[in-house]
Each structure stands twice: as structure tokens, then as C-alpha cells.
Design a protein that fits this description.
alpha/beta; N-(1-d-carboxylethyl)-l-norvaline Dehydrogenase, domain 2; five-stranded mixed sheet; 12 helices; 47% helix; globular; NAD(P)-bd_dom_sf; pantothenate biosynthesis; EC 1.1.1.169; 2-dehydropantoate 2-reductase
Amino acid sequence: MKILIYGTGGVGGYFGGRLAQAGHDVTFIARNAHLKAIKENGLRVNSINGDFVIQPAKATDDISEIERPDLVILGLKSWQIKDAAKKLKSIITEETMILPLQNGADNMEKLQEVISKKNVLAGLCKIYSKKEEPGLINHFYLEPEIIFGEMDNEKSDRALKLNEIFNDAGIKAMVPDDIYKAIWKKFAFIATVSGLGGLTRVGIGKMWQDDYLQEILKKTGLEIQAIAQAKGVDFNEEDVAQLFQFISGQEMTTTASTQRDIMEGRPSELENFNGYIVEQGKKLGIETPVNEFIYRALLPMEKEARRS
């Protein structure tokens, strides 16, 4: 299968690396020093499941060089999706599948504003990984998993075949009965811990250990649940209980990627997380005071990061 990894960071680098390791024709979109290192030394992946190197690795920063892919995996940030979709229009066919794996609850909708609905799959991933240095991806925690499906939840032939390809490459994958529920479960976790983590500058476990901060985390999650249910997503009380249980099991120093972006002064997904909940709350007539405080408190830093 011809696969394009658009965004070779912690997510795209890891999953693309596994697919290339399994023998698929994988091309990586990367930039600057990261691209140079991949071309010179291959794509190096350090993983709790075993280190490996893809050498040589096909990598470029010029999308016009790409052969028409069967599958595009988007490893960009959620706020970069529309620009990527505009560039992809020139190289995809009617049969190309585009799978967004970044955090966020409305990635599919963003893609459909630019690209035909029939090209778009819905998806998410579970992994703790990051670009450690140019050419090096570090997968440091959690068994990686891809959860994806058709936007109408049909168990289509292409979805089942892609699931088989992922599994054969050693990637845990599944096509759930309700992809929207799965997306919102992941979104609720990442949006709950990221913003408050950006404010407190401590790990998820430390936030949960503090009674006051734990209560803020819970209120953040409950506001997200209210928005999900108002949008018709089956994100119920059992799911919320599982969310809080999962947060409670995180290590003291564990941080989410958006929290790290905020702490390091990089543009983040704040607008697509707490900002999205605030925006949807206003549209749906639902109060989201905790998410709004977190969003407003971080917004000046986010604007400064984008200016620089």
C-alpha cells in the first residue's frame, strides 16, 4: 500500500515507521532539520516495544513529489488540518483514504470543508510519543493503538482491510461500533488534562493527587460530557467514570502533548480543546465556566506563541 504520512512527529513518525517496517511504501512529509536528519540517517524510533530504524526512509517537504497515495495519515495538529487538506487535493484520487489521528472532536468536519466526504475516515490514536530530536521519535509510554472507521459507522470493506493492514504491521487497531463515542472519549481526556496542565505546569498524576485540582478536572470533564450529549454523542455517565479512572491512573510526571506545547511556548491546540467546548457551549446554550476560565487564562500565552 502507498501511504503518505503528513506530519512526521510523535504520532506520524511512530505509526508510519511501523508501516514502513512492515514493508509498505511509506513517504514521510517533514521539514527543516527533521527532514535533513531523516534523509541522512533514516527515521529512528525509540520505543518501549523495541527500537528500530527505517533506512533509507522516503521523506520530502514537497507534496508535488508524492505519488498518488492509497492512504494518507494526518499526524499534524488539529489547527493545521485545513491547510493540509488544501495541499492534498492535488495528489489524491477518488479512492484515497484520509485518516486524521490528531486530537480534537471535529477533525472530520474540517477535512470535509475542503475534501470530498468519501475520502475521509474518522479516527484517533492512543500513544505517548514525541519528536525527541531531528530524525528521532520517542515512544515512551502506553501501548499504541489506532481506532478508526467510516463516518456513518459502516463496517466497510476498506475499513476492515485497513484494520487488517494495521494489525499485520504490529499496530493494535480496531473499527468500533460507534467511532464518534470513541473520539469523544479520547477528546474528553486530552481536553480535560491539557489546559489545566498548561496552567499548573505539573504532571497529570500530581494534579489528580491535589483535591482542589482534582475537582477542577472533574468539572472540566463534566462540561465536556454535557456538550457531547447535546451534540447527540453517546458519552454517558459510565464513560465519565472511566475517564476519571483513567486520569487517576496516570503517573506523577506524565504530560499531554498540548500541555508540553503550552509550557514550551509553542502554538498549541488550546483553541481546538477548551476553546472548542466554550464555542460549542455558546452555540448550544450550555454553560461551560471551568473550560472558559482555563481557555481565557491560557489565551494570551497562545496568542504570543503564534505571533513568535
